[in-house]
Every structure is written in structure tokens, then in C-alpha cells.
Amino acid sequence: MTAVDLQPGLPTQKKSEASTGGFLGTIRANYDLLVAPIIVVVGLLLTYFYVSTRTLDTIEARALEPENVLSQLGQHLLLVLYSTVLVLLIAVPIGIGLSRKSARRLQGPVLALGGFGQALPPFGVLLLLGFWEFGVRSAVIGLVLAALLPVLRNTVVGLQQVDQSLIEAARGMGMSSRQTLFRVEIPLAVPVIVAGLRVALVLNVGTATLATYIGAGGLGELVQQALRLNRINLLFVSGAIIAALALLVDWLAGVAERAIVARSG
């Protein structure tokens, strides 16, 4: 018994429509995924044309050199990567534990604690962590606190939404509790978990912009420099790059989510 056998629904219908309609069927079934990359490309092109019509001073020209922008983009992506991996390593096991019947009493307090952590202003959290230590480690901890709840909550909800009759059928076939968890419950809950991860990724991309204030680098360096030196062109370009990155990351996560759901279906 596998997740492929057990989960019917709309993703299967979309997949069958795509397979019967060929390439055009695939486009029709996933047309909504084309919107974000088009917006990103058009937005970046408009930003480029805007900058090309302006006379940049030496500070703006130096800040917008490709090497500098790519270096800070790399730092930004590393912050997002580190924090997202830690969120997965922390939230998913805790969510699995909280979904067990023996831990139901702890579910409310733990989720409430996670909600409290997410409700804290990210900028304030990062500044407080900066008093402990400046640098990447503090920034990653702050990003984990900001993005932990969506994955934790979706893990619990996804596992609880698995049809109890499927679990009982798996146990009736001789599967142990561990086998049922890893071969039935988790595969069926993966789409919901991935949806939470998608939210966490977008949160991390935006919040990582603030990491520059505690010496962790990232694209926030461009924003901070623009604000400090009152360079409107630099502020506009840096804002456009960050917005495009958030849209692109959300799009990639959406593609992964759609592929996982289709495969599970």
C-alpha cells in the first residue's frame, strides 16, 4: 500500500488532462505557474531600462556593479538556505511527534509558542540576537524563529487530515506503526507540508533583508546603503531585485509543490 494508491483527487485529474492533451494540456493545467516568471522578467527589464535612462553617480554605479550585486545575492540565498534547512529539520520531526495521540496535550501549547515566536517583529528579534552575536549565525536563528510556525503547523495538520480508514487498512495489512507513518501518513501529508515550506521560504527571503543590520550581509546591504546615503535610484533597484527574488522563490516552490502533489496523486 503506497501513497500513490491511496490519495485520489484533483491533482490526478490535472495530471491525466495534461497527459491526454500533450504539451498544450500541460500548459492549460498549469497556466497559473506562468504568471510569476513573466512578472519577474518584465519587472527586471523595466528596472534595467529605468536605470539605463538615469545618470548614476559613482556611489550608485559601484553599488550596482554585477560583482557586488551577485555577491550580496549569494549571501542572501545562503541565509535563506541555511534557515530553511534548519526549519525543516526542527519543525517536521516536532510536528510528527505532536500529531501522535500520546502528544495531543502538548500540541496546543507548542503551537501557541510557535505562534508567539512568529508574532514577534523580525527586526526586533534580529537586533536582540545581534546583542548576543553579530553575524550569520544570529541571522539564521532569527530567520528560523520567524519561519518555523508554517511548517510546524502544516506538518501537524497534514498528518491529522490523513483518512483514518487508510491508516487502519495499513495496520490491517500487517504494517507496524512506524511503517504506517513513513509509508502512508507522511507521503499523504507531504503536499500540505510543502505548502507550509513555501510560506516559510517567502518569509525567509523577505526577513533576510534585515540581516544586514547585524552584520550578516545579503541584499539588505543595498537597501541600507541607499537609505543611509539617500540614493533613490539604488533604493529602487535594490527593492526591485528583492521583490523579484521573492516572486521567483515562491514560483520555484510552487512548481515543486505542484510536482509533488501530482506525483502523490
**What is the SS-derived class?**
mainly alpha
Number of helices: 12
Sequence stretches where pLDDT stays below 50 over 5 or more residues: 1-20
| Mean pLDDT value | 83
Q: Tell me about the largest β-sheet.
A: none
Strands, count: 0
Beta-strand portion reads under 5%
Anisotropy-based shape: flat
Distance between the termini: 14 Å
Kindly provide the radius of gyration, computed on alpha-carbon positions and rounded to a whole number of angstroms. 22 Å
What is the helix fraction of residues, given as a range? Answer: over 70%
Helix-strand topology string: HHHHHHHHHHHH
Describe this structure as you would to a colleague.
It is a single chain. By secondary structure, the chain is mainly α. Helix 2 packs across helix 12. The two termini are 14 Å apart. The N terminus is likely disordered.
Task: Give a brief rundown of this model.
The radius of gyration is 22 Å and the shape is flat. It has helices spanning 3-6, 10-29, 35-52, 58-63, 66-99, 104-119, 122-132, 136-160, 164-172, 177-207, 220-229, 232-264.
Helix and strand arrangement:
Layout: H1 3-6, H2 10-29, H3 35-52, H4 58-63, H5 66-99, H6 104-119, H7 122-132, H8 136-160, H9 164-172, H10 177-207, H11 220-229, H12 232-264
Helix pairs in contact: 2-12, 3-12, 5-8, 5-10, 6-8, 7-8, 8-10, 9-10, 10-12, 11-12
